[in-house]
Structures are given as C-alpha cells and as structure tokens.
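Running this now, will post back.
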Amino acid sequence: MRKIDHSAKNWNLDISTRCTLECPECVRTRYMLKGNTIPKKDITLDQFKKIADIAENKRIHFCGTWGDPVFNPDFIEMLKVCREKNIKTVVSNAASHRHESWYNKAFAANLDAEWWFGIDGLPQQSHLYRKNQDGNKLFNIMLLGRDLGVPVVWQYIIFNYNKDNVKKAKKTAKEHSINIMFIDTKRNTGRK
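Update: finished.
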C-alpha cells in the first residue's frame, strides 16, 4: 500500500453540491444542461473534522466546483474548527442568497478567514455571467465583512461585457479599501 503524503500546504475543498447560481461555464450548470440531476450532497461536520486534523496549521480553501460552500449546513461550524486548529482559511463565495444575519454569524465564526467574493464586473452587471446573482447585495456583504475586520477580496473575472469597467472597479475598490483580484478568462458568458 502506498503511503499518503499529508504534507500538502493547501487543501481545496468542495463541501457542497448546492448553489443558486447558473453560471454558463460552471461544471454544475453544464452537468444539469445534459439533463442530469445534481445530488444534494454535503461534507458532514464529522468528515470535515477528520480533514481538519490532517490540515492543522496549513491552509484550506473552500472553493465550490459543484456548489457554493455557504450552502453547506455545517459551514459556520467548519469555520470555527478552522479557527480552533489554526488553519488559514479562504472562502470563495459567489452566490448571494444567504441573509445578512447569516453572514454576520459566518464572519464572527472566524474573523481571520479570507473571503473572496466572485463579483464579475461592477456589482450591477455581475449577473450577466453569474446567473441569478444579486451583485449589489453581495458587494454590500463584502463591505460588511470589511467593516467587521474580515479580510475580503473582490474577485473580478474579466469578460467582454465588463472589460471596459476595470479602471472603474479599481477606483471603487480603492475608495472602499478592499483588495481586488482580476482574472483573465477564456470562459464564455453564455451571451450571444
């Protein structure tokens, strides 16, 4: 039997198959467009604790391929476990369907967790790729996190529809004292 190397410094975890968005190039959306049903699956808190024991003093990135991590029912508890085990934590969040009070609890669970908010373009135009997203609401949630002292990043994927707003986005990020990360892509927005 081969020995498993647990020395990896970064762990990328997809902890839920739930998401309210229908981004055209998302694996989940493409799977559904083929007529498949997405099973409602979440990593349990007990399963996560086993991972956290191995990942202690390392880094976990909650990044959804099949779903947004905020929809895992145990997510806030997972954030607490990361804090207790001194695990550097990054959360990628693009779905905007959680209430502000939920975010207050999530941020409080681990004030050191870094949140990357997938808002592609100016907030009012992000829904052009992030189907069903309320970009304005998510932008305000990002500002809430910043106000609570949570490290936040505006993740901006550059598409044809938003490439002319990069300078304005940089200015907006600077005005609000938030970091912005631009990502070039060959993804299709799904727009004709």
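The chain has one domain: 10-184. More later if anyone needs it.
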